[in-house]
Predict the 3D structure of the following.
Amino acid sequence: MNKIALIEKTRSRTDFDSRFDNAFEYDRYALCSDSTKKKVLKADVDIEINIDDYDWIILIGSESLKYYTKVNSITEYSGRCIDDKFLPAINPAMLAFKPEARPLWEETKSNIIKYISGELKMQKLSEDKCYGITETEELHKFLRNAIDHDNQWVAVDTETTGLYPRDGYVLGISMSYEKDHGAYISTDCIDEKAEHLFQYLFNNKIVVFHNAKFDVAMLEYHFGFSFPRFEDTMLLHYCLEEQPGTHGLKQLAMRFTPYGDYEQPMHDWIDGYRKANRVLKDNFTWDTIPFDIMKIYAAMDAVVTLLVFERLYPAVKKNSKLFNVYQTILLPACRFLTDVQDAGVPFDAERLEKSRALMQEDIDEAVRQLYEFDAVKTFERIKQKEFNPNSTVQLRELLFDFVGLKPTGIKTGTGAHSTNAEVLNILAEEHEIPKHILSIRQKSKIKNTYLDKILPQLDRDGRLRTGFNIHSTTSGRLSSSGKMNMQQIPRDNPIVKGCIRAKEGNKIVAMDLTTAEVYVAAVLAKDEALMDIFRSGGNFHSSIAKLVYNLDCEVDEVTEHYSTERQAAKAVTFGIMYGAGAAKISEQVTKDSGKYFSKTEAQEVIDDYFNEFHKLRTWIDKSSKFIRDNGFIYSHFGRKRRLPNVKSDNRGIASHEVRSGLNFLVQSIASDINLLGAVDTHNKIKDKPAKIFALVHDSILAEVREDYIEEYSNILLECVQKDRGISIPGCPVGCDFEIGDDYSMGKFEKKYGL
């Protein structure tokens, strides 16, 4: 009979017997006997236990996990066996306030019971099944066997020295074409004949990647390989579980294969090497790892990729909606974004240098003005030291003790009064110093985050190659990461956009969807009155205001004569689709218009709005009910948004979940319209003098030769406005075009004169 220990942070009231279905007996321990400790440090641990006395040790929560293992993430390892003894588990008590964790807990509970009973066992492949290839003739034989094998799938992975093709090279290629067999191929043994065999294999098999965008880019750039057909386990899992941060290969391997955290031994070697040679984590490169250490880990990557594919592909395929999303949106977008990343964002290096200097001058001047304030001078005289605006302690003293501003009530994790951006924005209404601090912070962030970092990361052609991701948001909107986050480029200062500049003879062409989400809502709701607003072709928000308020002027005069009413109509239009009430609308209109707009006024305009567009209200109510009843909703294109928290006993949490679902319905569709339009355009202009280099929110950015701009714009307009079953008859979604020498569209020159 197994001897089992259960260790939690401090003694709690949790009934673990019932939580684990009374499936086994155990000895219960606490890391720390002081139950008042909210956070247990190593110095607080006073547990008395000999772990060798136990066959299994269940570790409840992150503190127990971190104390007994080298692992930090409890959610990642919950229900996964570590070192053949430790069984981590999220604390089931968290389900009371985080009901979305219930599936993870149920899986964790099931796995732990199976491990203890012997039903579930960790496995490890022998070196005859998972091996390295360093000889050319051996490689030729391996590739011929892969070609002749009757499995139509072959899993492929790469180990590289960089995250972008131009920043490094391929160390080796991992492959698996039969279950529980894999090889890691050193690129040193790849000759011309092997390259032909590789390409023949890729032409005649379906290649399975995990994160195809990365591996395809690497193999295309360094070897010239092409992949007519490929699948992606990362995107398959994204279809099934859209939550960000859950799609890593290691996570999927632990969930869907018997091999657990197979890479841990290699990371142990890395840790030992770094310690012995005093190498910082950021300075360690993968080419340091000996081939004999790397080979098993790398080969296993391909092995588990194939196993995960065999689990996930049938699950997605049996759901026609999800399979359609995977085949018609995600895979084509993956191919497209590989090319977008390769195109690179065009930067003007000379302008970047000048912009850095300009921004530093602005920062220096703002700092100089800050020191001119009497309160700052008084601070320095009394404290007998120079005021440091980067010190939160000093800033807190200055604002609340010397200036005499009243704290907002917003506090830090330590209980001190906060001086974050939210607080400073509030305080800026009462005094100039918070406004100055905000200005310094914003300008410093622009310089440090963008201007300082971009220049050294430019490739020799003056372009910045950064990442665009299709799997990182629940809505399906693209995200950006890597060398620069294109989605977070400052909007209120044109200095970064102004450095994104077309080369001579070209222009930057930016196409932006207009009121796309409202357009989608009108179609989904089948609200003819709302669709008529679009058909009218005038200023949308002015038209809405005129209709709702029955204004006695023409649509093009609304902004001038009834600006508050227009702001109210705009706020309601965007707000009510996402469940915003009168209080939120009141707050938003007051902020946007600069005039107080009461809650009563807000409720009146909401009522008037729904009187005009009553089918929109019906659609919102119907969709909200579906979400509450089912805990999920599908978009027009088949994306599924899972919303388990609608079942929460907390009304606030449940209501937020419904709003998230409504947001998803319109946001994801608008995003997919834009994405599919960009993909179709890209396929039509591949051999033309135009390159799409970024998708930013609802914009498609391209660098286009001047004599091709008209033709490119017509192609893009046709592709984006294509009827995909979500259009107003005779009135396609609106698109605005801007054309300029740089992405700021002249605002940079106007502000800085460069």
Remarks:
- Residues 465-516+671-752 form a domain with the Alpha-Beta Plaits fold (CATH 3.30.70.370).
- The radius of gyration is 29 Å.
